[in-house]
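Repro:
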Amino acid sequence: MADHETLLLALAVADSQQTLLDQLVKGSARALTGVTLWRQEEGTLALQGWSGTAQDEGTPVPLPGAPKYLLGWTPDAPLPASVQAMLGLRLLYLDALHEKLHLNDQLSILHHAALTDPLTGLDNRRAFDRHLEAVEDTHEDYVVVFIDLNGFKALNDKFGHALGDSLLRGYGVWLSRVTHERAQVYRLGGDEFVVLLRHTPMSPEAFMVWAMDRLQVPFVDGVSAAIGIAWRHECDSVRALLSLADERMYAAKKAELTSPEIMHRRRFRDLR
């Protein structure tokens, strides 16, 4: 009785199909020299695993409570009904656990996709809204940088969407690189990007000088970044903050489009 209960306990905590089969052979049911496990799907038997020595096991028998699973074992070795029932229950549990893990993986993939821009791999507008809300709840100061690419449409129309997409991906990589993980970079759509930065040691004035230089588009003639910057302490609400950054970005865009000196400046940037 003690051996029988030990076997039932071992089967009840087995973490895989193979462990279940090994317990039958190596556990207290020592009369068993070999077992095979089968699964029936649409009238076809598929071998799931085996344990013990290679020999002809008996005709597979459906397990109680789990009729899709069938077990074959040495014909002259007794296998108590309670052991078969425990096998069936544990196999159903392992199936349910596997399905749960699979669903969790799928949910994680869907969650990531919902918050990620598929072209650049950056976080998207939905992620930006969530992160901004979270940062707002901390009551800490932060800075939002709105970016729109001047000249992108003309380049896209002239050379095609493949080159335009390559530019957007490259610029996303550039933004992530120059912020050195101190900021979160987002693509809102089209040629619009956002940088959200917390805990910067720079003053607003110094940060503006840095951003206007380092957040520009490197090595692409005819395309530049119109940048609008707004700090949390400048506004009473998030809505007003975003509106301010947006207004400043469009003011910068207008200034660049109407200034011959800015339009023809050399946009070489040190990539080191």
